[in-house]
Amino acid sequence: MADNKDTIIVAIELGTSHISGIAGKRVNGNMQILAYAEEPSAGCIRRGKVFNIEKTTQNIRNVVDKLQSTLGKTIAQVYVGIGGQSVRSVHNHETRNMVTKSYITADHIEALRNQSFETPYPNSERLATFEQGYIIDSTPVEEPVGVMGTNIEGEYLNIIANHQLRDNIETCFAKTDVCIAGTKVAAYELAQNVLTDQEKRAGSVLVDLGAGTTTVVVYKNNIVRHLVTLPIGSAAITQDLTNLQIDENEAEQVKKQYGNAFIEDTDEDNEYLQQTYTSTYSTKIKVADIQHIIEARLTEIIVNVENQVSISGYEDQLLGGIVLTGGGSNIKNIEKAFLSHIKNIDKIRTAHTLNQPVIKNSTVTNLSIDNGMGNNIISLLMSGEDNCVGDRYKGKDMFDDARVDAAKDAAEKAAKEEAEVVKKLEEYKDAIRKKIAELDIVLEDVKDRGNEKNARRRAVEKASSAQSIQDEGYRQAIITLQPKEKYKQTISEAQALSTTLADKVDAVRDAVQQAEKENSFGSKFKKWLEDLTDDND
Fold first, then answer.
1. How distant, in Å, are the alpha carbons of 21, 211, 417 from that of 215?
2. What is the pTM of this model?
């Protein structure tokens, strides 16, 4: 991408330990970091998911204000990373039968992609899709367009997450004056900037050891093959250490000072392990006890990573090995620990920096770019394209609170209106279900008493009234909710019910027509003649 000195990109990461913001621009092909700010996220974000809207919103405002103050410019929009424990990949197969042998076209491939995009996931939404490959008439092909065949099968890897993950993020930003320029799958952007081209091609596992989560991304032949965020990270080690009667802040420092991911059998009699640490509460703790607690929790994390590598189906095809990054990758002997537990892999490296050079302004003193802890947010920054800043920043003024309140009121009003539409659509769905049940009864009635004119008339009336339930209000509710990914399942259910209702109406009308035909004068006369003939015989 060409440099543009006027383009300043801003990104925000909602992490378990911190909400971080970063601003930078591209200079001679490199990313220059102009500003960085952070706020603690304890009490508002858990395992990458926002659970306290108000506190998260305030912390985002604080981060943006700090960035604006450093830049001297107003931030209008930001790129936001989506991560968290519900982010995971699922495989999806789509097939298409050509009836006769034909050349596969781009339109055929696009149709398969669209089928994959439309796959519903209850309570979840699709964040991204990666094509895995195609099979034409049982033969795998890399480039299907132009190949002749009768049947084509496409395999896709959909990255999904609980729809509340994005909803809560959007709600927080709706309460600020900052727009979202784009949401990014954080794990994918990290992999793009940490793994080398050779590692992505040969097959490798990226393990991001975060505070609240551990993310695993498996690559092979330059394609993402598996992605999952595990709900456990290095913060669990800190929590374990508090059982030694030390508080959380001290436990974090103890972890950094004494952390050891792999204790050799020969280390048990080591004099260092027999030393004691004296806590601020004068509690004496053996170094060996500290390290065994740390090793045990890290082993649990590694075993979970190994399980995900096995689930990916590529455990014996990863010539590029394992690449570690994130704050947890700084723990002593972390590479030894992974190699000792994960089978079929004998190559490992720790990525403390990104593949592309990063320049940091001298004023940016609170961001580390050489220990892996900043890799996530810098990767988000590198993924941005559009300018995110506007006029010169003048600081807070007397109208700030009024603007915040107005934005908050607008967001609450929009959420309330949306909830009303969802409620109304659910009422329509219930009403449609009742009509379907009524039509089942009417259909049986016509079959039993089709010779009665009143029974046929009532059936026609019921069929007509059933269709009228899908009025303008119903159609408007569908139109309003359709653009929102989180309501895809609800809309699919409504449309399926509509189809069933239409089928029932047609069945009732067909039954009425058949009954009228059977009870017409001509039919009765014909039957009389047949009966008369039978009697004469």
1. 21, 11, 36
2. 0.72
